[in-house]
Design goal:
3 strands, 7 helices, mainly alpha, Rossmann fold, three-stranded parallel β-sheet, 188 residues
């Protein structure tokens, strides 16, 4: 769909500790979208020009409004936003954690009720994430799926059997390592 111009796809992974914020998420999505459509590029260019051609940093609110404009401008094409490992985002006891901010942003976009906007979030099944998205999202858990468990076991076996250093291990030791790591993997 993307290659035919029928969809735009963005991907954000909460890998870099310094970029585990809603601002980083928004900035990444905006940049990725502007490379996929002239319409999106024009919308982001207007924000850039309004902020002294990059001399001033736009506020979070301006960035969010820019993305809403892009979403509203894309009535003919679907937008897929993939947010990977949202559980890597910091969570604190108080009400202003980075993870809560990101979850609030996701809820705001879901509340737009755009039929052409699709959001996919991957995460460990953390209670705050599950409760935040429970009523507004479809959930698929892979942690308990047999195929997932089989893939994990297959991967561990391949690593244990491929490493020359493991050739010195007995078959019982290899089985113990494979079984222990598979059980502790918890679907990951």
């Amino acid at each position: 769909m993307s290659n035919l111009g029928l969809a735009s796809v963005t991907y954000f992974y909460f890998k870099d500790e310094k970029k585990r914020t809603r601002r980083s998420l928004l900035s990444s999505i905006l940049a990725q979208l502007c490379y996929q459509s002239d319409v999106y590029y024009k919308i982001l260019s207007e924000v850039h020009a309004d902020h002294q051609d990059g001399g001033r940093s736009p506020s979070y609110k301006v960035l969010k409004e820019c993305l809403v404009k892009m979403i509203n401008a894309s009535r003919q094409t679907s937008i897929f936003i993939i947010i990977d490992a949202i559980d890597e985002c910091q969570r604190t006891i108080d009400t202003s954690s980075a993870r809560k901010d990101v979850l609030d942003l996701v809820e705001e976009f879901i509340d737009l009720h755009c039929k052409h906007l699709r959001i996919c979030i991957t995460s460990h099944p953390e209670p705050d994430i599950r409760s935040s998205l429970y009523l507004i999202a479809c959930s698929v858990s892979l942690h308990d799926e047999e195929g997932q468990k089989g893939d994990i076991i297959g991967y561990i076996k391949a690593i244990v059997n491929a490493d020359p250093e493991h050739n010195e291990w007995t078959e019982n030791d290899k089985e113990l390592v494979i079984n222990t790591l598979s059980q502790r993997a918890d679907g990951m």
